[in-house]
């Protein structure tokens, strides 16, 4: 039951308590085998020291070979509950109070997940691309779970991670059997990470499907920097300029302290853009954009929304400097974040997002006329370009609030 403390939390508390004032490490910085023998039993890690296979006994040479114990030690260090000082493993005194609250331990361990890749996915005879690109793979795994309203088949999660991490490499020339082994090792490591999350109480498994628990959702919200109950939230009305019949607009709520680079991603997801062009903000005559841009923008990653605008004020956002999609953004009001909500949150809206690269507002007007009026000589070419079967498949009025919020939850910060 979720009211019980996750096994990993109890093991970490037991580990730090057992360390006491400190324990001497080996020259390689690992727990000694003598201490490992005691900890494997005390913490019930499930590791086997000196495993016997058939008639042979394989001598354990280092505690690093004990996967679960090594993971707990490295995880406690990454969560700043333990540290190494002068060749000794000692508790971090300033974080001692964290150990008194299981929920704070959970938060600390979840926040440390991106930093424990080598302990979760140790190198072996067949390493995976996931192990090499662990932070990126972990993000897409957690984000896929967070965006889902229900259980997600594990095969879908494996595919999402593979698509993400394999994209960093050129694999087209690999033999089919080698590619198959790489995919299998990747799927194996996805299962290892899910097992780690299961021990943390962050996910639940039902058959071959997985979902975040309420604890996992809360931890993900904090990891993403979402507003907590009572935090200030700005309600924004984002309207696409010069687009009518129908107008295209969204009403979204975002943490008041969001940086402009995050607001950019919110606008993309809420409106339905594909984020494949340049963008810029204009706030009271000052232009903000990507810090590496050659357009001399002020760094949007260092600009917080609530430091620039207040309730009742406007800012402008331009997407795609060729088509020039202008968005007028009004800070309608400031509200307090409510319990049980995830921010950013879309609460209302209307109109479908125009197709990318259709020529801006004038081109979109022409597109709508071509598809809505009598048969036009360019209609078939336009339908092929849009990937549609018939003109009836194009609906400029369409707006799906649920799907919009799924996109917002799927944002990868």
Automatic annotation (TrEMBL):
It comes from the Bacteria. PANTHER family: LEXA REPRESSOR-RELATED, TNPR PROTEIN. This is Plasmid pRiA4b ORF-3 family protein. Coiled coil: none annotated. Residues 233-402 form the Plasmid pRiA4b Orf3-like domain. Signal peptide: none annotated. It comes from Streptomyces kaniharaensis.
